[in-house]
Specification:
binds adenosine-5'-diphosphate; six-stranded parallel sheet; nine-stranded mixed sheet; alpha/beta; 19% strand
Length: 480
């Protein structure tokens, strides 16, 4: 007998459509909640980038119209299954709003920002209209990031009293727009709805702020990030709204799908391996991936980066350590995409070292798996990191993370130099010098074969499954 029915509202979900870690969380948490008596279903937009083949068979469970910019837009909810799972997915089908432009558009232009804002304000508005009409009624609506953060307020505006949870996966994305204009899209007067009153420091309607002020419960994805968010340095203007939350902001560390990400069964790996075969397995995978990347083999370690190439991820610190890696006959492979200027800077920085370093500017989940399976060390020098999945995946595959001491990286990686049960290297200052010092110690550990193997095995033993955090979410739903 299920105790709770929870509807996830989100912009991405693995394996259907993924831009970053948010998709992995939305794709994995429902399965982890099922044994705990929670039936979670997921609602996402039906993007043009979502192929019918990926969606599989669907049936139309609801057709309705949504008021928008003074007219009505027809929408349907298509019900399907998340691939390789029993989880139900509702695809919101509204071609006019979701077919063009990928998932998020380019948010560094005003035009892209406007399109993204219209897309997700509409999505939240339409979700709020659909919820009361759904044949399956959720007890809790669980909204993920700003793309769904307007849902609690919109439910209130429509007279629906619902229990809601807002999870902040990254406070950088807030969804800001001129309030009068945004409310016009909805056909709502600015003055009548107290629920829609909050304005950010620039006087804009700020969708994430709206969610923080209206959701029954607000949480984020690690305890350290939950504390950091209350400071001006990390709170990005919303620290005051977060501090005023009556129940505070809880931090719950993400897990990963340990069945999907498993070096013993991952078909991407030339050599699959367990803890007792990690050293030999990695050697084979490393040779294979170096050949794939047209890099020469060397006696030193393979350093890998997989992640978005943005200011947040601190990838600008990487060019400074290339000489250190080369000096120890190491190799560096970077896989990522993001801000065009940063992509360009990385590509140019490694161009002079074609036999030592390689950068792929693209999204490629299969290559990412091969890199985790081959890597000795995983570099993640983030300026801020709400939780981070890269370091968890790295540990799962026995690659030792080298991370900055922030957010979820602080909560999940213990430093080998200070803790017997350490699984990585943690540095504090966001500088190349601090990263270099950690790297030098990592190189020393790499040269002590037994120490390195023991560290890899400890990393692989780290519990990065969803089991503990899923039960904390159940408690959160009870509070909501
Ligand atoms: P964020 O959510 O901030 O992007 P996370 O570390 O939480 O960062 O999650 C990133 C996820 O996306 C990981 O699963 C990582 O392996 C994956 N990923 C990021 N960039 C790429 C890429 N270019 N190709 C394949 N997978 C990627």
């Amino acid at each position: 007998m299920n105790q709770h029915r929870v509807l996830f509202v989100a912009s991405e979900v693995t394996p259907l459509i993924k831009v970053g870690g948010l998709a992995d969380v939305v794709g994995a948490l429902p399965d982890a909640l099922a044994p705990l008596g929670v039936e979670a279903r997921i609602c996402i937009p039906r993007y043009g980038a979502l192929s019918s083949a990926a969606m599989g068979g669907t049936k139309n469970v609801l057709s309705t119209t949504i008021p928008w910019k003074g007219r009505s837009i027809d929408i349907s909810l298509l019900e399907g299954r998340l691939p390789n799972s029993h989880v139900t997915v509702y695809y919101m089908d509204a071609p006019e709003m979701f077919l063009a432009g990928g998932v998020y558009y380019e948010h560094d232009t005003e035009h892209g920002t406007r399109l993204a804002m219209e897309r997700f304000v509409f999505f939240s508005w339409a979700v709020a209209h659909c919820i009361p009409q759904l044949p399956w009624q959720p007890d809790v609506v669980h909204c993920h990031d700003w793309h769904a953060a307007a849902v609690p307020a919109m439910l209130t505006v429509l007279g629906e009293q619902r229990h809601t949870v807002l999870t902040i996966h990254n406070i950088e994305g807030q969804g800001k727009w001129n309030a009068a204009e945004a409310l016009q899209w909805l056909g709502l007067p600015t003055s009548t709805h107290a629920t829609l009153q909050p304005r950010d420091l620039q006087g804009n309607l700020n969708i994430l702020q709206l969610g923080i002020c209206t959701a029954s419960v607000v949480n984020t994805v690690s305890p350290t990030y939950a504390q950091e968010l209350l400071t001006p340095q990390y709170g990005q203007g919303l620290e005051g709204d977060l501090a005023r939350r009556p129940g505070g902001v809880r931090g719950i560390v993400n897990g990963i799908d340990t069945a999907l990400f498993n070096p013993e069964t991952d078909t991407q790996l030339p050599a699959r391996y367990a803890q007792d075969t990690v050293a030999a397995g990695k050697l084979i995978n490393k040779r294979s991936v170096l050949a794939e990347c047209s890099l020469t083999t060397g006696s030193g370690p393979l350093f890998v980066v997989v992640g978005r190439l943005t200011q947040q991820k601190g990838v600008d610190l990487l060019p400074g350590i290339i000489p250190d890696i080369m000096h120890h006959d190491g190799r560096l492979i970077i896989l990522g995409s993001g801000v065009p200027d940063i992509e360009q800077a990385i590509t140019s920085a490694i161009a002079p070292y074609p036999t030592f370093c390689r950068a792929f500017v693209k999204f490629d989940a299969a290559l990412a798996s091969r890199l985790y399976g081959a890597a000795d060390f995983f570099l993640m020098p983030s300026r801020f990191e709400p939780c981070g999945l890269g370091q968890l995946l790295a540990m799962r595959y026995g690659a030792l993370p080298i991370v900055r001491d922030t957010g979820g990286l602080h909560d999940t990686v213990r430093d080998i130099r200070r803790h017997k049960d350490g699984t990585g290297f943690v540095f504090t200052e966001p500088t190349t010098e601090a990263l270099r010092a950690a790297l030098q110690d990592a190189l020393r550990v790499f040269n002590q074969h037994d120490t390195m193997t023991a560290a890899r095995q400890r990393a692989m033993r780290y519990d990065c499954s969803w089991s503990r955090s899923a039960s904390t979410y159940v408690t959160l739903y009870s509070h909501a």
